[in-house]
Each structure stands twice: as C-alpha cells, then as structure tokens.
Amino acid sequence: xxxxVFASGSGSNFQAIHDAVEAGHLSGTIALVVTDKPxxxxxxxxxxxxxxxxxxxxxxxxxxxxxxxxxxxxxKELEVEWIVLAGYMxxxxxxxxxxxxxxxxxxxxxxxxxxxGKDAIGQAMVHGVKLTGVTVHYVDAGMDTGPILAQAAIxxxxxxxxxxxxxxxxxxxxxxxxxxQKLWSR
Length: 186
Ligand code: GRF
Known about the structure:
This protein has helices at residues 12-22, 41-49, 64-77, 94-99, 120-127, 161-184, and strands at residues 2-6, 29-35, 53-55, 82-85, 104-108, 131-138, 148-155. By secondary structure, the chain is α/β, with parallel strands linked by helices. The chain has a single domain (2-184), classed as 3-Layer(aba) Sandwich (Rossmann fold), CATH 3.40.50. The chain has a seven-stranded mixed β-sheet, sandwiched between helices. Strand 2, helix 2 (41-49) and strand 3 form a beta-alpha-beta unit. The protein is globular and about 45 Å long. The two termini are 12 Å apart. It catalyses: N(1)-(5-phospho-beta-D-ribosyl)glycinamide + (6R)-10-formyltetrahydrofolate = N(2)-formyl-N(1)-(5-phospho-beta-D-ribosyl)glycinamide + (6S)-5,6,7,8-tetrahydrofolate + H(+). N(1)-(5-phospho-beta-D-ribosyl)glycinamide binds at residues 11-13.
C-alpha cells in the first residue's frame, strides 16, 4: 500500500522502514514524510531518500483541526492509505482518526500498557524493571492505548540507559518492518 511516515526526531525508524522497502522486505511505498519539526533530522533522511516531505508546525495554525486538515489534504492528494507513526511526538486528533479508521499504526518503546507517553525508556529505568520492550499498536484517541499488534521483550542493561536504548532501537527497527509486512500481506 501507499503509506506516510510521521516523525518528529532522528527518524531511525523511518530509515529502517525505507531500507526495508528498498530491499524488497516490505511491500509498500512511502509516499510522504510528515513532520511537525521542520529541523528534525528525519527531514534530511527523507531528502536523501528522495521522499516528499510535509514539514509544518502546528503553531502556525489556528487549531489542531486546521493543522490536521492541511496534512489530510496532502494525504488525499497522494492517495495515502496508511499512516505509520515513527517517533511522532503528538497525539493524533479526530480529523486524522476519522479519515483513517484502523489505518494508523504506532511504535512505542515499552511493553504497553506499561510506561505510555514520553520517555518510556527513562520510566522503565526509574522503576527498575528488568524487562522492558517494544510495542506496535493501532492508534486511537488515547496516549499509546490502541489495540496491540506485536510486542518484543528486551532485558534492561542495569544502570545503563544508553545500552538499553541501543537494544530497544535495534529491536524496534526489526519489529516495525516485520509487523507492517504481516499486516499488509494478510
Ligand atoms: C522510538 O523509540 C519510538 O518508539 C518512539 O520514538 C522513538 C523515535 O526514534 N515513539 P526515531 O526518530 O525513529 O529514531
């Protein structure tokens, strides 16, 4: 299918997905990258990949609805069928939820429903859990609350956030691609 990737940061998940498409491991086409942070590194990655980017700040719109309408217009123009969130640090509002029912997917760096929201890895470290992980799920109006599609567990490297994070990101990149492939080939 034709899909859009939404990201606000480094875009390593975008990169992994793009690489999987290029390698023929994921059947789909990234039609657009959407970011709310025009100077995020994902914009550079998309440029190098030759993928069109819509970089617009919500603060330049009168409301969340107006911001999402602008995105929706572009998605329609490009006939985008699915939205893949990859480090997009905003809640999806009703405009996009209604336009893409059960067609928006997210990845989150914890075993949901534990540690939703920001800095899930930091939350896991603070709580001293020994196992954390990664969740791929459908997006609904809540914060990291939609139906779960896939999970993988990862051992925390005690006292070492950096190493734990590295492990999590490596698993994310693999799990996201695999899960999307499964979802789209059934
Ligand atoms: C990932 O850990 C993702 O699970 C979370 O935000 C991070 C984005 O990383 N939602 P990147 O921008 O894909 O490198």
